[in-house]
């Protein structure tokens, strides 16, 4: 490996670190809103109201049934055209992560609540708690513990999904790598470092989640 090739591995780092910051920022903020959406629609999927259940089901199935690339293009170009406003690309990316992750988190919430033994609800009602109080104080704390591993997996998925946002020139990790090798023609070096930086985030996260899962015994 000659000196010029070696130097590319170091020279690309400042750009990739900048891209990594945007990647983590978009993922983090998007998942915060995604969790809120997921909790709302997850509980809606548990509703006895056919209308509420139906609305939640449409949201989940439409989002899960379409690729996130199509969703980001729809938000950035489609909604901008429909509303007659320019949606900032970072804002569009956060919205896309939130909406996409929200649909999957909704199913995580629904599955976690369903996994709690029905005797827990009966026990709550037997001591005088209302249905909402039983959910809040008995079922939800147990369900949330069971949601931690799949929520961590969703973080990894959403983190990798941000690489698709390079199509609208969001300065995330992959886009910054593309910018570097577009100017230097050092594609191998730049993309190798991009992959390594993704692995630095995803592999420790996966290891940690396995440990958490064993501790929770879920």
Could you explain the architecture of this structure?
This protein has 218 residues and is mainly alpha-helical. The protein has helices spanning 3-11, 13-44, 50-64, 68-83, 89-115, 118-126, 131-161, 173-184, 187-216. The protein starts with a helix and ends with a helix. The model has no long low-confidence stretch (mean pLDDT 90).
Task: Compute the number of strand runs.
Answer: 0
Q: Largest sheet, described in full?
A: none
Number of helices: 9
Give the H and E element order.
HHHHHHHHH
Helix content estimate:
over 70%
Q: What is the radius of gyration?
A: 21 Å
What general outline do the C-alpha atoms trace? flat
- Unreliable stretches (pLDDT < 50, length at least 5) are none
Distance between the termini: 47 Å
**Strand percentage:** under 5%
Average residue-wise pLDDT = 90
Derived from helix and strand composition plus strand pairing, the structural class reads: mainly alpha
Main location: membrane
Transmembrane segments: 20-44, 51-78, 90-109, 155-175, 181-209
Organism: Thalassobacillus devorans
Protein name: Glutamine ABC transporter permease
